[in-house]
Design goal:
Length: 155
């Protein structure tokens, strides 16, 4: 598990770096042939981790529920994102891996509702969720990089 927590922390750090260094107009732009933007993808991976790990463990998410609902699967980018929300996501990217590791080590994950992901992967426990989350992070990192490349090419 230690390696999974380390990988998650590094990917979250990379997402945070993208979020804090990308010009605002690029964060919120949706290029042709894409359905969402860089900010939505980053926020989405953050809240998906909370749902897969905490909610399916029958626990409250560590993030504000409004943020979770706004960026869950099936949502679309909001045209009205505040600077406060951007800051909240940036801070949470750095905090959530540590929270999860601490909560895991403290043994708070006692139950889990089995869940089949859209990739047809069955998650039967929190360990499965933590491992699958890395796959999900990688998918969206690829999307973020593709959006970024497309925006740079059209600039």
């Amino acid at each position: 598990m230690e390696k999974l927590f380390d990988i998650t922390e590094k990917i979250h750090y990379n997402f945070n770096k993208i979020l804090t260094t990308t010009p605002k107009e690029h964060l919120f732009s949706i290029p042709e042939n894409f359905n969402n933007n860089i900010f939505w993808n980053i926020s989405h991976v953050l809240v998906t981790q909370q749902l897969l790990v905490y909610k399916l463990s029958k626990l409250h998410t560590r993030l504000d529920w409004g943020l979770v609902k706004k960026y869950s699967k099936g949502t679309f980018p909001d045209k009205h994102v505040t600077e406060k929300e951007v800051q909240q996501v940036a801070e949470a990217l750095l905090a959530t891996p540590g929270w999860t590791k601490e909560d895991y080590e403290n043994g708070i994950f006692k139950e889990y509702d089995t869940y089949t992901t859209s990739a047809n992967v069955v998650l039967a426990n929190v360990e499965d969720a933590i491992a699958f989350n890395i796959f999900h992070l990688g998918l969206h990192m690829g999307t973020v990089q593709a959006i970024h490349k497309k925006l740079l090419a059209s600039a």
